[in-house]
Design goal:
heterodimer; A: 367 residues; alpha+beta; 3-stranded antiparallel β-sheet; B: 159 residues; elongated
């Protein structure tokens, strides 16, 4: 006689400490195995796209900072301003372009550090969490010296950046770059060799290459599944066309591959930061753009590579001093879509490990 | 059997490498500060509390009542009123709702006379929400209204 089993619906979140925000997952279980995982979103909806229609292009920089992904404020500013500058034909001076590149890569490192720390914490490696935040604290001090903010910078402006870098700042960044690979090795020692960690991530949550493309996964998630696509290489913006860096990819598509890809991305970011400081030209950092700048009638789509993936901004202008419509294509949302594909067939204990490697930020998902 | 031994050895090596990092951190420099007693300095660029310091030369406000900061504020948290005509014109009201402020520094940037500035102060929290409305006197003083940490904490003669 066969044993009769029933599927069980398990509600996870919205106030679960490992969802890093207010994500609600409705997981269908067959015993211990995940049959289906449905994300329910909208708990952090701030209608930032609508709010942007009420504010001028300059004011929206402050809004793009915090309305989207709050861990990568500069990447959001960049995506928004790229659309504004391309539509308005505003040209940033070369020094501003290089400063932006430098800042974006520092932001990538700091964002990946938060990811690594919190993910390690979820998997029980509290030490890694503390170590990552120790380095991130130093990065936030660097950001504070240059921009005045620690999390929300409002540093980029239409046509450049708000102010020039303070004296001696680049030396402090270089000092950080010298030390950082050593710290990466520390994380590596703590995690990569650890058999408990490996048992939880190796071969878990596999996203095949076809599924990654089909589900629209982007950024490190897609690259860990063997999709060699990076917007910085494919559609270079700012100074990315002139710097040398590799795009790390991995074929396995499991949690461990996503971990390795992000670790390698941090090393590449250090490389770009070094090149940017070396080649930082002199001159103006900001072109004259009126406070209430008006853009010509038209529409544009600008895409950038934020630390989480392909961040795009679609902007429609009716000739006024504020956008008629602004749509954000959020990388976290696309990766969240691929999440159920990653989770299907794995055990319920793997949910946290898989969710962590998708690296979603809920304010980016809901906007 | 041999495979098991290899795996066991790898596990021992992996754990030992991790423990070595931990032990090294044990003797390393301390990274934390005991907040209310020890304080960190903030950079001169710091987006802290807003202030409207008086001009030391004339003893008056530097503000020329051009309303640019009020207009540029994304959160509309600055409220300015003025009375008088021509040279007599002076501020009667300059309120900043610090609970709405998003510390974006756009008001500081547009100000033509550098009348509105940031002060390196980060203890803006209060126990009463109404105390987050900073009027002209508070802004002249250029300090936070209620440093909470000082009120509830006192260690070793310092607070």
């Amino acid at each position: 006689m066969a044993l009769r089993t029933e599927e069980l619906m398990l509600n996870m979140g919205p106030q679960h400490p490992s969802t890093h925000g207010v994500l609600r997952l409705l997981i269908t279980l067959d015993g211990e195995n995940i049959v289906d995982a449905k994300p329910y979103i909208g708990y952090l909806h701030s209608s930032v796209e609508k709010m942007m229609e009420q504010r001028t292009y300059l004011q929206n920089v402050a809004l793009a900072d915090r309305g989207l992904d709050y861990l990568t404020a500069l990447a959001n500013e960049e995506a928004y301003l790229l659309a504004v500058e391309r539509l308005g034909g505003i040209e940033a001076p070369p020094r501003a372009r290089w400063i932006r590149t430098l800042m974006l890569e520092l932001q990538r490192i700091s964002s990946h550090l938060v990811w690594l720390g919190t993910w390690g914490n979820d998997l029980g490696a509290t030490t890694v969490f503390l170590y990552c935040f120790r380095e991130r604290e130093r990065m936030m001090d660097l950001f504070e010296q240059a921009t005045g903010g620690r999390l929300h910078y409002v540093y980029f402006r239409p046509g450049g950046v708000a102010q020039d870098l303070p004296a001696g700042w680049t030396d402090r960044v270089l000092e950080f770059c010298d030390e950082f690979p050593g710290h990466l090795q520390e994380y590596n020692d703590l995690l990569t060799g650890n058999p408990i960690f490996l048992a939880r991530v190796q071969g878990v949550g596999v996203l095949s290459k076809d599924a990654a493309v089909g589900m629209g996964a982007c950024g490190p998630v897609a690259r860990a599944s063997g999709v060699p696509f990076d917007v910085r290489k494919a559609f270079p913006y700012e100074a990315y066309g002139e710097v040398e860096f590799d795009v790390p990819t991995h074929d396995a598509g499991d949690c461990f591959a996503r971990y390795l890809v992000r670790m390698e991305e941090m090393r590449q970011s250090v490389r770009i930061v070094r090149q940017a400081i070396e080649r930082l030209p002199d001159g103006e950092v900001r072109t004259k753009v009126p406070v209430a700048v008006k853009l010509p009638r038209g529409e544009i789509y600008a895409r950038t590579e934020s630390p989480r993936g392909d961040l795009g901004v679609y902007l429609v202008s009716e000739g006024a001093d504020r956008p008629y419509r602004l749509k954000v294509r959020a990388p976290s949302f696309a990766n969240l879509y691929a999440l159920s594909e990653m989770m299907r067939g794995w055990k319920v204990a793997d949910v946290i490990a898989i969710l962590g490697t998708a690296d979603i930020v809920l304010s980016d998902v809901d906007r | 059997m041999a495979e098991l031994a290899v795996r066991a050895w790898e596990a021992v090596v992996g754990l030992a490498t991790g423990l070595r990092v931990t032990l090294r951190a044990l003797g390393a420099k301390k990274n934390t500060v005991q907040y209310p007693i020890e304080r960190l300095d903030v950079s001169p660029n710091w987006h802290g509390l807003l202030a409207l310091p008086l001009d030391p030369a004339t003893g008056k406000d530097k503000c020329i009542i051009c309303f640019q900061c009020e207009r540029v504020c994304p959160d509309r948290c600055i409220h300015i009123e003025a009375a008088g005509k021509g040279k007599e014109r002076e501020l009667t009201r300059f309120d900043i709702e610090m609970d709405k402020c998003c510390y974006c520094a756009l008001c500081v940037e547009v100000c033509p006379t550098e009348a509105i500035v940031f002060v390196p102060c980060y203890e803006a929290s209060t126990l009463d929400r109404s105390r987050l409305l900073y009027d002209l006197d508070d802004l002249h003083r250029a300090d936070s209204k209620e440093p909470v940490a000082r009120g509830i904490f006192s260690v070793g003669g310092r607070s």
